[in-house]
Amino acid sequence: MPKDGGIGASTKRREDVRFLTGKGRYTDDINIRGQAYAWFIRSDVAHGKINSIDSSAAEAMPGVVKVFTAADFAGVGGIPCGWQVTDRFGKVMQEPKHPVLADGKVRHVGDPIAVVVAETLEQARDAAEAVEIDITELPAVVNMKAALLPDSPKVHEELTSNLCYDWGFVEENKAAVDEAFEKAAHVTTLELVNNRLVANPMEPRVAVGDFESHSGQHTLYTTSQNPHVIRLLMGAFVLGIPEHKLRVVAPDVGGGFGSKIYHYAEEAFVTFAAKALNRPVKWTSSRSEAFLSDAQGRDHVTKIQLALDADNNFTALRTDTYANMGAYLSTFAPSIPTWLHGTLMAGNYRTPLIYVNVKAVFTNTIPVDAYRGAGRPEATFQLERLVDKAARELGVSPIELRRQNFIKPDQFPYQTPVAVVYDTGNYHATLDRVLEISNYAGFEARAAESKARGKLRGFGLAHYIEACGIAPSNLVGQLGARAGLYESASVRVNATGSITVFTGSHSHGQGHETSFAQVVAEMIGIDAGQIDIVHGDTSNTPMGMGTYGSRSLAVGGSAIVKATNKIINKAKKIAAHLLEASEGDIELKDGKFTVAGTDKSVDWVGVTLAAYVPHNYPLESMEPGLEETAFYDPSNFTYPSGGYACEVEVCPETGKVTICAFSAADDFGNIVNPMIVEGQVQGGLAQGIGQALMENCAYDENGQLLSGSFMDYAMPRADDFPMFTVDHSCNTPCTHNPLGVKGCGEAGAIGSPPAVVNAVIDALHRAGRTDIAHIDMPLTPSRVWSAMNA
Amino acid sequence: MAKVSMTVNGKAVSGEVEGRTLLSTFLREGLGLTGTHIGCDTSQCGACTVHVDGKQVKSCAMFAAEADGAEVRTIEGMANADGSLSVIQQAFQDHHGLQCGFCTPGMVMAAASLLADNPKPTEAEVRHHLEGNMCRCTGYHNIVKAVLAASGQDAGQIAAE
Ligand code: FES
Ligand code: FES
């Protein structure tokens, strides 16, 4: 039994107390004396030429401080993109300008045109009505394939076409893959859509800019998953503010799921305006505005094919994907359909030859970037739907076809044909485990019981692999990343033994204040209550990369381990001095330093006090104090995997799908706080099931957003789900980070959509509808009903 | 501008509001009670849930002026008198019923209202009651568990089923 507060314990979260009593401090809770309020005027057409903006009437209205337009940003850089992809012909991607405020043209509904700043929010909103904007609407392009036709309207006239890049991976394998398809005994083909989603963290984005004219110091309070990244991008590329004059603070953040990674125009705006007006400026997004301005997720259209030999072994895989970038390149958009998608196409399988083609396309829609899973859900959905379809075509069990083609437990580390090397895993174990916890053996009886009630029951399986904690920095640099992907930590031991840990990771719901403290408590052997975690403020934390891609424990936790080890090494030296022993003989256990084989000891506080009151201290050979910083750059990704089983009932009259049970058996390596890990999986499952059954971000052919509020974008609610069965007993620890941990934040959202769709197809096939090979997500009652009545 | 007076968490308060000022805005901006959150502009998410005269209300769907003279309770008024967590709040912590915490005040207020009317709800009743409160983080699993536990039922047993 792990000790409460140590590694492996389901320690209750300390941050909960403030959240449960209304004492959380989110960005919108911050008001600075004298602040003005910003109201963004956004385009209501998807594509148009701005002829004129007349703000004179608005500027004369009560309380209005100033109306900003693109003209005010003439000397300012555009919103940068953080990843440059090189295409299959060796050419770098087409990268359009992305002005802070629309300059001459609007390119998507919601594109910001002007901003009214006023004394009160109501005054700003009222005055916005009086700003006269004359726009000539231009033909919009929404469909990706249409956007690539030679006569398509161009989203950016300075580019040669709407094609951002045409990426091939691994390009050298293309001919061999095609040849394997010619020789195949069977080829399964599937065309599918990965529906566009809106992340919708419950806290909308907020930005507050502050400026101190006497020192030139800027402060930005923002709802961000990575304040240092915002400081770097905004400071260096947009506004030209050096880091020491720019502080970015992300206080409590109410969820992100990727949408709060990116640097957004509103952040640059309030920072810029605070200086221009010499007063604080605040912007709070409404939910409607979030639908128009937060980067969206997914939106891939794919044709994928699997080649099998006569014994049903996978021999080759090829896939053609169109990936929607929207109207501009959001911060990490180009990397999602490429390096976070193509590299995952081996899945859990031994497929020896793989070729991935991705065409990234500009359209007159809101930009698309990472959303929980980012590229990996798209890869997993294709593969796991395809394998299921192949099994049905061949008349074999989808379970057995998977098992037969899985990478075997003794084949790790496993070099895939798509560049990555999986360090550990045991897919046979997670598959067996999910069949056990889902009581697959009892399925036929449950199906019969459903049938008696007039319902169609189906069982769907999916097995996923994901790559978390993207790294190492030198490799991702070669792949086009314009940032490093390490993480940082400073461990400050105070004189009386308490510890403050400053981390470059940033929690937006993951519970770092609790789990990171557990790691340090375990290493030193003191109570977790003695340890505080500080994050989210560039003024007091070391340069870090923040939280996304299931990286925080694997990368940020490793940095903390590294810094804590430096602390322990120094503390041992101090203890050796105090105990008049040699350093090599000092052992640290339960917060006590002992000379091995003796009862001579000094406790933790004895050492920390000596470090800061160095009366009896080897000053000639060691500095006083006990504070260390470490940066950790991982040598590889971590590769969590798992088997997911979904059981559904389909109503044959209405097409309504009900989730009866959902079971997840994940391999996350070692686990620091099982309670938190289970919570991450449950939340991910809800988002993945949401994608599969109800969520859909839709545009009409003119680029109007049809799903612009919670009235028409279906968010999962409490009564859409059963209790989930979540298991993490099959663990193969990661071999290249000190904690042996793998990422767990995105798994649920990656593995669940294909499990749900496979279950629905299974239900239909069992009912004799073997003609229905696929239904595109979301599987709403009308789509399922239409498929059944086609 | 008009003057409104009400009792919030047992304290008499008053302030000047416009006719269009929402109760949620008055609580947050007028009284500094920022525990009540705003998650939408279509009265769908429930993050702003408070109690008005003992009834669960979405405070973004009510004008401050309509609450004149009312008895209002917000998340800031839910802890025990000694500051310790109330049974419902404690159950949320014990069962990891929150992650980012943004939906949490609304969830706690909704749960308190459910349990006041229905002290031993079934899982289905809990889910149905929370239908107007969105959470993007937890998948609701642990929220439902927490509410059942707060009602004195064995949440572990229910979750294991
Ligand atoms: S803020 Fe009131 S329901 Fe969303
Ligand atoms: S805990 Fe984040 S929205 Fe519910």
UniProtKB/TrEMBL annotation, chain A:
The keyword DNA-binding does not apply. One of its GO terms (molecular function) is oxidoreductase activity. Coiled coil: none annotated. It holds the Pfam family MoCoBD_2. Keywords: Molybdenum, Oxidoreductase. Residues 21-139 form the Aldehyde oxidase/xanthine dehydrogenase a/b hammerhead domain. This is Carbon-monoxide dehydrogenase large subunit. It comes from Gemmobacter aquatilis. The lineage of its organism: Bacteria, Pseudomonadati, Pseudomonadota, Alphaproteobacteria, Rhodobacterales.
From TrEMBL, chain B:
Pfam families: Fer2, Fer2_2. Gene3D superfamilies: 3.10.20.30, [2Fe-2S]-binding domain. It comes from the Bacteria. Residues 2-78 form the 2Fe-2S ferredoxin-type domain. This is Carbon-monoxide dehydrogenase small subunit. Keywords: 2Fe-2S, Iron, Iron-sulfur, Metal-binding, Oxidoreductase. GO terms for molecular function: 2 iron, 2 sulfur cluster binding; metal ion binding; oxidoreductase activity.
